[in-house]
Amino acid sequence: MSATVKRKFRHVRLRKKLGGTPTRPRLAVHFSGRHITAQVIDDTIGKTLVSVNTTEAELRAKPGARANVATACEVGKLIAERAAAHKITKVVFDRGGFKYHGKIKALADAAREGGFEF
After folding, report:
1. Can you give the residue range of the structural domain that contains 9?
2. In Å, how far from its chain's centre is CA 51?
């Protein structure tokens, strides 16, 4: 089984157990080879409340902006800032089937420093 297939199985298993609510939305994270995406989602209405992506001009303009630990830290801080503007502080962390180390851990730690509780 390929790594992608294993990740998708882990993600399905995780999503059975967790979901976003209006009081505690889901912080979903995804990594590709080049980009990082983080979204705060309310699953009851199926709506993305806040999102950050490395394809945005603000993040793309920075030197060395690619899917690495340093960029993951910036994305974590930025998603926490944008969510705070919408008065969102408590979230459920959805690692998207990725293992909790490296970029995932860096983004989660930065989001916690930014004000998220999970």
Report:
1. 3-114
2. 8
pLDDT band for position 60 (50/70/90)?
Answer: confident
The owner of tokens 């609510």 is 21
Q: What is the DSSP pairing of strand 26-31 with strand 36-42? A: antiparallel
| Rounded average pLDDT over 40-48 | 96
Cα-based distances in Å from 70 to 26, 30, 50, 104: 23, 15, 21, 11
**CB of 83 closer than 8 Å to CB of 50:** yes
Report the sign of the C-alpha dihedral through residues 63, 66, 71, 74, in that order.
positive
Number of domains in the chain: 1
Q: Look at the pTM and tell me if it is higher than 0.85.
A: yes
CATH classification at residue 72: 3.30.420.100
**Whole-number mean pLDDT of the chain?**
94
